[in-house]
Amino acid sequence: MLRHMLGAVALCAVGVGAQAQTVKIGVVTTLSGPAASLGQQLRDGFQLALDQSGGKLGGMAVELTVLDDELKPDVAVTKVRGLIESGKADVVVGPIFSNVLLAIFKPVTESGAVLISPNAGPSTYAGRACVKNFFVTSYQNDQPHSVSGQYAQDSGYKRVFLLAPNYQAGKDALAGFKSKFKGEVVGEEYVPLTQMDFQSEIAKIAAAKPDAVYAFMPGGIGIALVKQYRQAGLASVPFLSAFTVDESTLPAQGEAAVGFYSGANWAPNLDNAANKAFVAAFEAKYHYVPATYAAQSFDAALALDAAIGKAGGTADKAKLIAALETAAIASVRGSFKFGVNHYPVQDFYLTQVVKRADGKFQTEVRKKVFTADVDPYASQCKMN
Question: What is the pLDDT of residue 172?
Answer without folding.
Answer: 86
